[in-house]
Design brief:
Number of helices: 5
Number of domains: 1
Structural class: mainly alpha
Number of strands: 0
Helix content: over 70%
Shape: globular
Largest sheet: none
Order of helices and strands: HHHHH
Radius of gyration: 16 Å
């Protein structure tokens, strides 16, 4: 990767991770959650299992680090794979499709094979909100960052 691409990769990772994290915290509070650290303990539970929920600030830090790592992997994947398709599509359309792909892979592959408890996937409204969050905080910003360089 060229220097400006690496810078774009890092800045996009930071933006996506922070934007998605803030959105997750807002949704958690709106759904009646009271302890923000539980959002990041859930992420850490992907590695540490249920014992993550009994952990302290160290587990929360791991959850935040894992969240940034996951964002970095999704941004990197797009930056490497998208140019191979030689498609010059509408950034919003491409970002929306990529956001949906991220949600599908995370919901039906990553979380189920991790040690995290499976969140319920039977509330259609919650699914729509989750997909929209990933599209708006992940897919579209990633596509925009890639296409703006």
């Amino acid at each position: 990767m060229k220097g400006f691409r690496f810078k774009a990769l890092i800045l996009t990772t930071i933006f996506v991770s922070v934007a998605d994290g803030v959105a997750d915290l807002i949704l958690y509070y709106l759904s009646g959650g009271h302890k923000a650290q539980n959002v990041f303990k859930f992420i850490a539970s992907g590695i540490f299992g249920f014992k993550a929920f009994a952990g302290g600030s160290d587990i929360v830090i791991f959850g935040i680090l894992f969240h940034f790592l996951i964002a970095f992997l999704w941004v990197s994947f797009f930056f490497v794979v998208y140019p191979l398709f030689k498609i010059k599509g509408n950034t919003i359309f491409v970002g929306t499709i990529y956001g949906i792909i991220i949600w599908l892979v995370m919901s039906f592959v990553v979380i189920p094979i991790s040690n995290a408890p499976s969140p319920p996937n039977d509330d259609v409204f919650q699914i729509i909100i989750s997909v929209l969050v990933i599209v708006l905080t992940g897919g579209i910003p990633i596509a925009w960052a890639h296409n703006s360089n």
